[in-house]
Please model this.
Amino acid sequence: MTWVIVGILVGGVFAHWTAWRLRIPVIVFLLAGGLVAGPITGTLDPDGTFGTSLFPLVSIAVAIVLFEGALGLGWKGVQEAGRTVWMLLTVGAAVTLVGTAVAARYVLKTNWDLAILISCVLVVTGPTVVGPLVASLGLRGRLGSILIAEGTLIDPIGAILTVLAFRALFEAQTSAELFRILGSTIVVGMAIGIAAAIILTVILGRYILPDELHTVATLAMVVTAFAAANHFADEAGLISVTVMGVIMARQQMAPVQRILEFNHALRILLISGLFILLGARIEPQTLRSLEWRNVVFLAAMVVVIRPLAVALSTVRSGLGKRDRLFLAATAPRGIVAAAIASVFALKLADNGHQNSQLLVSAVFTVIAGTVVLSGFGGRPLAKKLGILGGERKTMVLLGASPFVVAFADSLQQHGAPVRVMDLDRDALRLARMTGLPIQHGSILDASTWDSVGVHDAACFLALTGNDELNTLAAREAAAVLGRRHVFQVAPARKEHERWWSLPIGTFARPLFATGVTATVLRQRFADGWQIRSTPLTEQFGFDDYRAEHPKAVLMFTVDAKRRIELLTADTKTALRPGTTVVALTSQLTDPRRRPPRVTPIDRQLP
Model:
C-alpha cells in the first residue's frame, strides 16, 4: 500500500506539472494515468489495495473537495452567477434527467428503471473537473462563476435524486416514503451544515483554538458534519458540507483565508488521487464492452441534451451568445458521478439485477468522453469564441512617490499595463496627472485588492518607503499570485548585511539590486537621475553600456518581441543585442552620445 500511495502522489504531481507546461486541464492526464496504471497494465488495483476502506476514503475526499469549492465560491460567487445558475439547477437539471433517460432507454437498449437511474447519476457535473478547467482557461467574471456554482451545487442534487430513484424503482417504496426521505435529507443536511458552520465560526472567532489548529479543526468539523448527516439521512452529507462552506465564506467573525489556502493545496492532492483511482478502478471488461452504442449515447449527451438544457436555462439571462455556446459545450462529469455509479452498481448486483455493469460502462463513457472533450477542446473553443482569459500582463505597483510614478510611466510606455495603488491621495495625484490608472485604499482592505485587480495581475511590486509595509503587502500578494510573481524594493538593513539571508518567505524577490533601497532611489531621482531606455546593438553591447553607466540601476529589459522582464538582485545580466535596457542613470559621461529614446518622466505638478 505504501508504494501505491507514493505512486499516486508522484503521478499526481507529474500530471499537474505536465498540464501546467502544456496548458491543458490536469484531469485529462490524471484519468489517463489511472487507466494506464489500472486496466491497461494492471499495476494498480484500488479495491485490492484499500479493500473496504476505499469508498469511505473516497467519500471523505469528495466531501472535503466540495467544502473547499463552496468556501471558495461563497455567497458572493452564487450572487455573481445570478439567476442563470438557479435555472440550470432546476430547468436544466430537469431537461438533463428526461433527455438522458430517453437516450439510455433507446440508445443503450436498457429498461426504463435503469435508464432513469443512469440519468440521475449523470445529472451532476462536478467541481473536481470544472474548477481546474475554469482555472486553466483563465475564465473570469460571470461565466466562470456560473460553471463553478453549477458544478458545486448540482452534486448534492444528483446524489439525492439517485437515492430517491433507487428506492422508488428497485426497492418499491411508496410516494409518502420517498417524500419523507427527500424532506429528511434536505432538512438534516442543511441543519447539520448550519450548526457546524456556527460552531466552527465561534471556535475560530473567539480564539478558543490557536491559529495552528484552525485548518485541522476545520477539516475535522467538515468530516464530522459529513459523517453525521449521512448517518441520519442518505446522501445528506453532501448538502451539509456545501451549506457549511457557503456560510463560512459569508461570515465575518472568523478568518478563512488561511483555511482556504490550505484546503486549496489539499484539494489538488485529493483530486489527483481521486481521478487516478477512478481510472484505475475501471474493469478491463468494461473497456472491452464499450461499443458504438456508448459513443452514440455520449454524443447525445454532448450534442443534444446539454445544449437544450442550457438554451432553456439561459432565456432572458443576459448572457451573450458566445458565453451561452461555451456553457452549452461544457459539462464534464467527475468523481462524484463515478462514486455514485460504483455504489449503486454494487447495490444493483446485490439485488440480482442483470445489467448492473451497464450503469458503470455508461457513466464511465460519459466521464471519459466529457473530460477529454473539455480538456482538449475547451481552450480552442474558448479562443475561437473570444472568451479565453488572456495572458496576465498588468503590473500592480504599491507606492506613488515621484520615482515610482516615473517607473510605472516607463513600464506603460513599453507596453505593460500598470496600476498604481497607495493610501496617500496627494501622492496619487501625480500618478493620475501622468495618465496612470490609480487605486486608493489600504492593503488591509480586501476591497482594495479586488478593485486594483491583483487576482488578475501578472506581478505585484512593493515600492513604498516603508519596508514593513512592503513586506506585509508582498506576503498578501504572494498568497494570490505566488512568490515567483511578487517583488519588493530592497529593505534598508545594516551595512554589508545580505538582507535575503533571513528565512525564505520573509521578503519578496529583490528588485534591482541589494543595495538599492527606496531611500536610495528617491534620493537619486531627486538629484536629477533619469529613467532612460537604451537599445543594445552589435556595435554597442551590454559591456559598452556598463562601461558608460557603471552606476546605473538596471530596472527591466524589453526584448525584440516587446516582452518585459523585471531585473532583480539575482538576475544574470548577460544581455544580447536587440534587447532594450531600461535603467535609472545619472548624466551621460559622453555628452555626444544620446540614447535613442528618453522616457518623459520629468512632468511635475504645477
In short: The chain has 23 helices and eleven strands.
